[in-house]
Amino acid sequence: MKFVDEATIEVAAGDGGNGCASFRHEKYKEFGGPDGGDGGRGGHVYAVADASLNTLVDFRYTRRFEAHRGEHGKGSDMFGVKGDDIVLKMPVGTIIADAETGEVLHELLQPGEQITIAKGGDGGFGNMHYKSSTNRAPRQKTPGWAGEKRTLKLELKVLADVGLLGMPNAGKSTLIAAISNARPKIADYPFTTLYPNLGVVRVAPEKSFVVADVPGLIEGASEGAGLGHQFLRHLQRTRLLLHMLDVAPFDEGVDPVVQAKAIVAELKKFDQKLYDKPRWLVLNKLDMVSADERETRVKDIVKRLKYKGPVFEISALTREGCERLVQSVYEYLSKEFQSHQQPVDVDPRFVDDPRGV
Q1: 3-state SS assignment for residue 206
Q2: H/E element holding 98?
Q3: pTM > 0.70: yes or no
Q4: CB count, 10 Å around CB of 200?
Q5: What does the CA dihedral 100, 106, 112, 118 come to, rounded to 10 degrees?
Q6: Confidence of residue 2 (pLDDT cuts 50, 70, 90)
Q7: Secondary structure of 229-284 in HEC code, one letter for each residue
Q8: Pairing mode of beta strands 149-156, 6-12
Q9: What SS3 class is residue 58?
């Protein structure tokens, strides 16, 4: 399936049905009076977050969605039937914005969350609506109101706790396959990953977090080099970034420190908030380095980067060091979650008296 994270669609809610002007005509009822019913309302257009979807590809091929209009009112006190609503299923993490103004209307962040993106028009009034003690034979009726019509821009930002950042072939896909249930494509050439992959990492029963692997970033991505930096948006909702470095590049002329600095520079160009997120250094492919050289190479990389944060030495292929990395990430996320929880207000009547009374 082709990964699509942007789409532009047109939605049109149903128009309301027209009101009816009618009078009762029955035998032996000389003054039947008005009996024209109101029109039915037009159908609404809803958007609902579906956890089973992970792409906007459905909206790439079908771009216009129209709800049904309401039926017109009829005589004999009959109101029009409302138009059928339509529900558009979208992936969790979809941002819905007005395509003309750019205003963000809503973000679907919870599975099953449902919002109205186009409201159907109300039905018009029939002449029965205008009946009163002084207006015994009203002939007024109103047409139905038009339903809302909008052009919307949909943008998907995947929901993940941790994001993997690094150059192509740094081992990001191998790592996410080693620690989670994701099975991305893995090969020995650059840009194997062409779209984001999500994986659930199970630390223990009822303890897990979600990690996102995005296509590799190279120097000049902000100018369109490689795959550009369009996929970095999928890291904007993460709480932690793992910056992966290949400590044993195939080309001996490649300096991982220079590559790391280039990625950090591209990150800053893209979004300052993303640049300010916590980043941990993960040195991968240590199985390709002899035990005698490993410590020296790691110290050299950290020193030249002037990095002061946590450093993890792993081999995603052999899974060496992966367990320590996973446990550390989960502990960090747990502390972050607890620190952002709102304090619970406690009724002072149920607080224990320090005097023991």
Answers
A1: coil
A2: strand 94-98
A3: no
A4: 14
A5: -50
A6: very low
A7: CHHHHHHCCCCEEEEEEECCCCCCCCCHHHHHHHHHHHHHHHCHHHHCCCEEEEEE
A8: antiparallel
A9: helix
What share of the chain in percent tops pLDDT 90? 26
- Kindly give the residue spans of alpha helices, DSSP state H, lying in the chain: 58-61, 172-179, 256-270, 272-275, 291-305, 322-340
Q: What is the pLDDT of residues 146-170, one digit of tens each?
A: 999 999 999 887 777 888 888 877 7
Residue with more model confidence, 340 or 57: 57
Q: Is the pLDDT reported for residue 296 higher than 80?
A: yes
d(CA 189, CA 214): 16
Report how far Cα 12 is from the mean position of its chain's Cα atoms.
Answer: 23
**Strands lying side by side in the sheet with 162-166:** 197-204, 207-213, 162-166, 240-246, 279-284, 311-313
What tokens does 58 get? 């459905």
Structural tokens at position 210: 């979600």
